[in-house]
Amino acid sequence: MTPTEPDFTIRLARDDRDLRAAQRLRYKVFVEELGGSGPLVDHAARLEADEFDPWFDHLLLIDTRRDAAALEDVVGVYRLLTSDRAARLGRFYSEGEYDLTPLKATGRKLLELGRSCVHRDYRGGTAMFHLWNALADYVLEREIEILFGVASFHGTDTAPLRQPLAYLYHNHLAPADIRVSARPEHRQDMNLLPADQVDRRAAMAATPALIKAYLRLGGFVGDGAWIDHDFNTTDVCLLMDTGRMSAKHRDFYVRKQGAPG
User: Fold this and answer.
1) pTM here?
2) What gap in Å lies between CA 137 and CA 156, rounded to an integer?
3) Would you give the DSSP letter of residue 243?
């Protein structure tokens, strides 16, 4: 993967230093900003880690002006797990929250996305655009057919989330053949309001930018949210089926292949 701007490089993590730099950014976002934790979080070293990290590819957005030795150069991260690696591992990360049986039964090439985050100083700029472009390259190179993963609303109180969760349920529920379901232990029904009481403007205002980006590309959600007390979030499972994308949505990927528009 090649540099995208004079001060940005985007590539997969190559070694332990790269992984630790990704975990440092994750700590800043998920622990310091959002109040999350977990059994392998290293507060002394300020690293957010878990047992799945060695199995994933880690897509890094690097600002070459920042101090690499201090693990400060990684300003954007995506964690990626293909279905063949998940088969060797024995599970996807999301299976702790969602029953993925319908998705796995398709026999199609899957890619799980997770731990996506951008340094607070780079939000609202081009950082997410660069990550999405690199993700498109990754998907095309590996002939991925379905992308999925959990994305989060901040907080575990679902009362303020009634509008966005109900909007997702009524407008973006995944087709039955790929509709994953939240496991019962911490499941939250998303059908919290009748369809005629959903205010789209209010729902979108309360929806994180990453989730809205998936929806703009034709994304769906699974059935039910998951209350994640460790990370202080309410999670939804997002899915993108490249075979179901409209021509407009698929154009994002087709352009990456250099095909005529």
Assistant:
1) 0.89
2) 35
3) G
